[in-house]
């Protein structure tokens, strides 16, 4: 549906994105994840033809966004980082205005807008001035303008930024719903958001793609693999003694008591060694119940921090990780 072929964007000496290659299939919801300044908006602005690339090409349903902008843009609904709202218009006036811009057939305009107002849950505020709406509702109007004209593709730049948790869930649900009938590219610097709605995630950092896959694939690809969480019905000393007798153990860390009369440990095997079976038999020989053996995969959050080299503390302090 969209084919991005080695696009690069330079502002003077500064390279905002370099050599981005990406293909988005019809019906897919793709998440573009990256810290601020990574190049998400630049990439989206190029895909939508809003700015030009220094190098490379973008095909939208076979049409080149630079050579055939009218055909290509017709297929795209765009919600930029700052929605282009005319706040002195009512919701209805504004959507009418956008319909005219997007050349929606005059006879179909009213019905089209009614359908959109209904699906984005804006019917109740259709006569309200946009400037008097809450941020959550303004964002919905932004989404509504993107779907005017029934484009197949929706490009949404940080659609939930600045919203409160309840509004975030509402917008997220709306996007999931729209995802049933659209191809969507969605950007965010918030992991939970991306993993909640997207089929596939592309992590971008300093203008380049650094990781790609389904949320599950990413967490397996970069998994610790050999790290196992254990809950053992014994004392710490007893448990450590037994683990000492198991071969191929790299490290043991104490996670404390999470349940009365038990101890939680994280045990790491040496180079790819699966140590689960050995641990099971060792504890079973000692007649000590192992209440949990759980391999630890990296969470999307840990992957993000790893590939973007941000310190966990920094990111948590900035409130970026939810
Ligand atoms: P993101 O959306 O991921 O936060 P952007 O795409 O907005 O990142 O920005 C990527 C990089 O390009 C940043 O370093 C930013 O400062 C730079 N940049 C973006 N727009 C311009 C511009 N018009 N002129 C100069 N530099 C820009
Ligand atoms: Mg941005």
UniProtKB/TrEMBL annotation:
Q: Which SMART domains match?
A: AAA
Under Gene Ontology molecular function, one entry of this record is:
ATP hydrolysis activity
* Top-level taxon: Bacteria
- What keywords are assigned to this protein? ATP-binding, Nucleotide-binding, Transport
Asked if the keyword ATP-binding belongs to this entry, the reply reads yes
Q: Where is the ABC transporter domain?
A: 2-231
Q: Which InterPro entries match?
A: AAA+_ATPase, ABC_transporter-like_ATP-bd
Q: Which family does it belong to?
A: Belongs to the ABC transporter superfamily.
Name this protein carries in UniProt = ABC transporter ATP-binding protein
The species this protein was found in: Clostridium thailandense
């Amino acid at each position: 549906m969209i084919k991005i072929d080695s696009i690069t964007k330079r502002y003077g000496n500064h390279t905002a994105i370099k050599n981005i290659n990406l293909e988005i299939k019809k019906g897919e919801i793709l998440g573009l994840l990256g810290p601020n300044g990574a190049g998400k908006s630049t990439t989206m602005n190029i895909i939508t033809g809003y700015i030009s690339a220094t190098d490379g090409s973008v095909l939208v349903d076979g049409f080149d966004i630079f050579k055939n902008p009218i055909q290509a843009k017709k297929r795209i609904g765009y919600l930029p980082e700052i929605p282009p709202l005319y706040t002195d218009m009512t919701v209805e006036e504004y959507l009418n205005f956008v319909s005219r811009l997007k050349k929606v057939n005059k006879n179909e305009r009213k019905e089209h807008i009614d359908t959109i107002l209904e699906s984005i849950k804006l019917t109740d505020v259709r006569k309200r001035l946009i400037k008097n709406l809450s941020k959550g509702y303004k964002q919905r109007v932004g989404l509504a303008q993107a779907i005017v004209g029934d484009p197949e593709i929706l490009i949404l730049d940080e659609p939930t930024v600045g919203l409160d948790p309840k509004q975030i869930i509402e917008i997220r649900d709306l996007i999931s719903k729209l995802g049933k009938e659209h191809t969507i590219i969605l950007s965010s610097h918030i992991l939970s958001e991306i993993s909640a709605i997207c089929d596939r995630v592309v992590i971008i950092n300093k203008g380049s793609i650094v990781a790609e896959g389904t949320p599950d694939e990413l967490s397996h690809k970069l998994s610790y693999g050999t790290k196992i969480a254990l809950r053992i019905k014994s004392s710490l000393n007893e448990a450590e003694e037994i683990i000492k007798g198991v071969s191929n153990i790299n490290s043991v860390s104490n996670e404390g008591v999470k349940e009365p009369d038990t101890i939680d440990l994280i045990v790491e095997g040496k180079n790819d060694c699966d140590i689960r079976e050995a641990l099971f038999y060792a504890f079973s020989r000692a007649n000590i119940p192992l209440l949990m053996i759980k391999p630890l995969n990296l969470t999307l959050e840990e992957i993000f921090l790893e590939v973007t080299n941000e310190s966990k503390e920094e990111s948590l302090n900035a409130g970026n990780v939810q």
